[in-house]
Every structure is written in C-alpha cells, then in structure tokens.
Amino acid sequence: MDFVAGCIGGAAGVLVGHPFDTVKVRLQVQSVDKPLYRGTFHCFQSIIRQESVTGLYKGIGSPMMGLTFINAIVFGVQGNTMRLLGQDTPTNQFVAGAAAGAIQCVICCPMELAKTRMQLQGTGEKKSSRRLYKNSLDCLVRIYRREGLWGINRGMLTTLIRETPGFGVYFLAYDVLTRSLGCEPDERYMIPKLLFAGGMAGIASWLSTYPVDVIKSRLQADGVGGVNQYSSIADCVRQSVRREGYMVFTRGLTSTLLRAFPVNAATFATVTLVLMYARRPEEGPKDCEPAPPDHHTQRQQQPSSL
Fold first, then answer.
1. Is the pLDDT of residue 7 over 80?
2. CA-CA distance, 293 to 90, in Å (whole number)?
3. CA nearest 256: which of 209, 222, 196?
4. Res. 303: pLDDT tops 50
C-alpha cells in the first residue's frame, strides 16, 4: 500500500510541478546571445501566449512513464538500506537516501533526457510544423537508433552527481524537520507539519545540487539544433562560465524553488489521504510518525521531480 500511495502521490506532484520544470529547462538552456525570456514570469507568459497552456506540459509523458519504476527503486533501496543500517538516525537517513538516489539514476537519466528534448521541441510555436518526436517514447527510440545506448544515457554522470547527494539531503532534511516539529499520531496539525517538512526538504535538496542540474540540462539539450557544443562536463562548465559568468549556475532557480514546495506538498497530501482511507482508522496515522524507517518510504523523492 505504501508503494501504491507513493505512486499516486508522485503523479500528483508531477501534474503540479511540470509547468515549473518546463520553465526551468527553457531558462537553463536558452542562448545568452539571443535570449527568448527575460526571467521566470516572462517565460511563463511567453509559453502560454505562444504555445498555449499545453506548452507548459510538454514532455510530461516521460516523468509519468518513469514514475512507477523510480518509486519502486527509491522506496525499495531506501527501506532496505535503513533496515541494513539498523538505526533510524539522521546520518543513516542521508546514507539510505544517497544510495536510493544513485541507483534510480538508471531510470531517471533517460527519462529526463526525453523530458528535456520534448520540452524544447517547438519552442515559441503553438503548432510546431517541425516536430521531430511524437512523444517521449518515440524520442528515446529515435535517440537510441541514432546514438545507441550512450545516446539515451547522455548526462548520466551529472545525473549521478546530482541525485546521490540530493536524495541524501532530502531524506536528512525531512528527518530533521519532522523530529524538530514533532509529528505525533494524535497531533492536531500533524499533516500540515508533514507538508511543510516535505516542501522545505525539497527546497534544501535543490539548493544543494542546483549548479549540477544546470550542467545536466545543457548536456542533455546539446545537439538539439544539430550541432554539439560541448565535448564533456568540464568543457560545458568552462564554456558556460566564460560566456555567462558564475550566475549561469542560478539559471531557472526561481521556477525550481517555486516548484519544489507545491510538488512536495501535493505528493505528501495525496500519500497521506490514500493511506488514511485505505487503512483502518486506528492504523492510518501511525504511518506519519517520523521514527520508523517505513514512514520514509512513503515519500516521493526526485530532485528531477522535486
């Protein structure tokens, strides 16, 4: 039941947060010489005006498809790691989260590659006449045929560098916050506290790894116009800093932080409601206690979906 609730909660998080993610990617990869957007809100307005509201949901099929597999990996690895470590401590939460984050990259990297390519397709056009990909699956198939396994795993190293500490920070921050706020079964404001802890943990996770996410997005978007700009991670960092300065690592940060809190709030609200209605009344609230390791397996983690 925890897995089912996590999947449903994660889907709610994707629906709420995907428009912010589209804006983030557009801002991260736009040309510094000919920028299309002046900032987060201008990007929102431009996409809706030029591509309609559906433009904000471009590429949503990819995270929806990968959601079940990512949840299965994250929840399974985190729970088993906590049981292996034996004690529910903040340090162990970080280690378990980092392990889960590292392993789920196998699914996360191709998923985010397809998402990024779909989000950039038909930029500024309501009805693109040059659609290269029909959907996320078609995108991955075409990339595989053209570039092989290396192609669909483009950005794997940067994804690993982002997800490993990012998941660790998320689990650590959430654990510390729930312990500090107090999440007792009979607490009147237990659910708002869980939502607040989840939202703030998501923000902390993104802040800890955001510069890596900028590089990952640029590497995965590289070659969309037919020309590859970067030969490696180091080359991408060098070119980006030389052309745009160190502020390049904050590109799209506003939309990311605006997305982080509501995504986690939607995820936690859905998970909590599913568990409360699916289980006996006297058992439901116990799943929100901060101490047992199983409680943490209910949380949707994905600093790509945070």
1. no
2. 11
3. 209
4. no
Q: How far apart are CA 219 and CA 228, in angstroms?
A: 9
**Nearest residue to 154 via CA among 208, 205, 224, 256:** 224
CA atoms within 13 A on the CB side of 126: 5
What is the pLDDT, as a whole number, of residue 297?
A: 42
**CA angle 95–101–104, rounded 5-degree value:** 140
Share of the chain above pLDDT 90, in %: 37
Structure token pair of residue 35: 């920028």
Amino acid at site 126: K
C-beta neighbour count of 300 within 10 angstroms: 30
Q: Are 66 and 300 in contact (CB under 8 A)?
A: no
The mean pLDDT value for 278-283 works out to 56
Q: Report helix, strand or coil for 304.
A: coil
Residue 171's SS3 state is: helix
- Residue 55 CA to its chain's centroid (Å): 19
Q: Are 22 and 56 in contact (CB under 8 A)?
A: yes
| Of 256, 252, 232, 230, residue with least CA distance to 243 | 230
Average pLDDT over residues 23-43: 87
- For residue 66, the SS3 value is helix
